[in-house]
Amino acid sequence: MFTALIWGGAFVAQSVGMDYLGPFAFNGVRYLIGAAALLPVIAFASRLRKSPPEGETVSVRDQRKRLFRWGVVCGLLLASASLLQQSGMQTASAGKAGFLTALYIVIVPVLGMFMGRRPGVKVWIGVALALVGAYLLSVKGGEGIATGDLLVIGSAVLFSVHILVIGSVPSDVDGIKLSCIQFFVAAIISFALAFIFETFTLGDVFSAWIPLLYTGVVSSGIGYTLQILGQRTVNPTVASLILSLESVFAVLAGWVLLNQPLTSREIVGCVLVFLAVVLAQLPEAKRPSENR
C-alpha cells in the first residue's frame, strides 16, 4: 500500500519537474539518482550474504552475464516506457496520466495470450471497461484523442511488456541488482536523447531538485525495493490490486497539490478504468475438474 502511495505521488513530482527540465533530461537525472540510491542497499545485502545459496551451481561469471543481459533489456523497456509517459505529461494532468498508465494491469493479461496464457471472461470485460474509460478520459467532444494522452497510453503498453519481461527473469537473478542496472541503462539512454534533442543547464537540474529526489530516491529506489520485499509474503493477485491504487493516489495528489480537479466526464472515466483494473485481477472461478 505504501508503494502504491509513493508511485501515485510520483505523478505530481513528474508534472512539477517538467517546469524546469524536458522529459529526456528529467528521466536521465531521475534514473541516475535511483541507481545511485540502490548502491548502498546492494552493498549492505552483499555483506549479509557472504556465501552463495545452497545448491547454487551457476558460476559467478555466468551470473553476472545473465544479470547484465536482463538488466539491459529491462532498462531499454523502462526507458522507452517512461520517456513516452513523461512526454505525454507535458499536456496530460497527473491524475489522468495515473489512470491511463494503470491500463497496463489490463494490457498485461491480454499480451500474455502471445505467451500461451489465455485470459478469462473477466479480463475481456475489463478490457472493454478500460477502453470506454480511457475514451472518456482522453477524448473531449469532437476533438479526438489528445497527443499527450496517446503517448501515455503507449507508455502503458510498454510498461506491460516490461512487466512480462520481469516475470520471465530467472529466480536466481538478484532483483535489487537488476533494478539498479536497468536504472543505469535507462539513465544513459535518456541522457543521450536529452543532449541531442533538449537544452538544459546544471541550474535547471538544481531548480528541479525536489521532484528529482522524490522520483529518484523515493519512487525508484525505495518504491521498487518495497515492492520486491512486499511481494515476498503477499499473494500476487492481492499485490496487483493494492498497487492498482496508484492511479487513485495520483488523482488525489494532483487535485490536492496541483489543483488539477477532474470534470464529471473524466471522473466517470476514472471509475471505469479502476473497475477494469480490479476486475482484471480477480481470480477466475475454478472449473469442477480443477477442484478434484
Description:
The protein is built from 13 helices and no strands. It has helices at residues 2-17, 23-48, 60-88, 94-101, 104-111, 121-138, 147-168, 175-197, 202-207, 209-230, 236-243, 246-258, 264-281.
Low-pLDDT residue intervals, each spanning 5 or more residues: none
Gyration radius, to the nearest Å?
Answer: 20 Å
Any idea what the shape is? globular
The major beta sheet can be summarized as: none
Structural class based on helices, strands and sheet pairing: mainly alpha
- The SSE order reads HHHHHHHHHHHHH
How much helix is in the residues? over 70%
- What's the mean pLDDT score? 81
- Give the tally of β-strands: 0
**In whole angstroms, how far apart are the ends?**
35 Å
**Count the helices. How many?**
13
- How much of the polypeptide forms β-strand, as a percent range? under 5%
SSE layout and pairing:
Layout: H1 2-17, H2 23-48, H3 60-88, H4 94-101, H5 104-111, H6 121-138, H7 147-168, H8 175-197, H9 202-207, H10 209-230, H11 236-243, H12 246-258, H13 264-281
Summarize the structure.
The protein is an all-alpha fold and 292 residues long.
Entry keywords:
292 residues; mainly alpha; 13 helices
